[in-house]
Design brief:
The chain is of the alpha+beta class and 272 residues long. It folds into 2 domains: 115 residues, no CATH class; 145 residues, no CATH class. The chain is 22% helix and 34% strand. It contains 2 helices and 22 strands. The protein has a 4-stranded antiparallel beta sheet with strand order 8-7-17-20, with no helix packed on it. Helix 1 runs antiparallel to helix 2. The radius of gyration is 27 Å and the shape is elongated. It starts with a helix and ends with a helix. This is Flagellar hook-basal body protein.
């Protein structure tokens, strides 16, 4: 009886993690480029309990001897769905939508004095002035966007900046458009290995996995972008509501199991 209560308590803790994932998906349903995440469950270790041997029952036995008792369930991983979201026209020159699954922009994120390369699908870019008079192409969170020559910087004196379908940055000066850089797009060949870093960013986990085994540079001919548009989140709100209700019901079942186990132990303690 105590064992069943322990199983329920362990599972409730893991179901809460799934509810947190669902809540995060729903909160980011309107975030450009956000990708839906899903918690995957697995059973914990089983304990084999053997019965007292009964030779007389063996000839007609249809089930294996012993009893396998579980220890609850746990969240093994939180997988990301990199499928394409809807494309929403904005008309803004620096809004860029990726048109192929698993393609991602590269950005430099500086935290605690250290700069790390991260990845995002959010193409809502803007220009940020630098002290030397140049401007940098940055994300909505102010992180520099990476091009073929490193962080994309544009010299002063420009009239307009636009992005071509192949990722080339076009800068207009004195009525003439010139290509000054190109967005360095990568293909997440193994997106399940990416680690969520918050603020719609993904990072390579601190493991023995080589970054080249997860990411590949996308050549110019395979780059496909749409200027003046953003990719919306691929979160299905109807599906998330259904998942939330099912998870809450499972949480309720396990909670009820603990309550019933407590009542049964109370009855046993009252026996004379």
């Amino acid at each position: 009886m105590l064992h069943s209560s322990m199983n329920a308590a362990v599972t409730m803790g893991q179901l809460q993690k799934k509810l947190d994932v669902i809540g995060n998906n729903m909160a980011n349903s309107n975030t450009p480029g956000y990708k839906n995440r899903q918690a995957e469950f697995s059973s914990l270790l089983y304990q084999q309990i053997n019965h007292v041997e009964n030779e007389g029952a063996n000839p007609n036995r249809l089930t294996p001897e012993g009893l396998r008792v579980g220890s609850g369930a746990y969240v093994t991983s939180t997988d990301v769905d990199m499928s394409q979201g809807s494309i929403q026209e904005t008309g803004r020159p620096l809004d860029v939508a990726l048109l192929k699954d698993n393609h991602m922009f590269q950005v430099d994120v500086t935290q605690n004095g250290q700069t790390e390369r991260m990845y995002t699908r959010d193409g809502s870019f803007s220009l940020s002035a630098n002290e030397d008079g140049t401007v940098s192409l940055v994300t909505s969170n102010g992180h520099p966007v990476i091009g073929e020559n490193g962080p994309i910087r544009i010299e002063a004196g420009y009239k307009s900046v636009s992005v071509r379908e192949d990722g080339v940055i076009l800068v207009e000066r004195n009525g003439v458009q010139m290509a000054e850089d190109r967005l360095l797009i990568v293909d997440a060949t193994r997106p399940r290995f990416l680690e969520s870093a918050g603020k719609n960013l993904y990072a390579i986990p601190d493991t023995n996995i080589n970054a080249d085994d997860i990411m590949e540079d996308v050549p110019l001919m395979n780059t496909s972008l749409k200027q003046g548009a953003l990719e919306t989140s691929n979160v299905d709100m109807a599906n998330q509501m259904t998942e939330m209700m099912m998870t809450q019901r499972a949480y309720q079942f396990n909670s009820r199991s603990i309550s019933m186990g407590d009542q049964m132990m109370g009855l046993v303690n009252q026996l004379r």
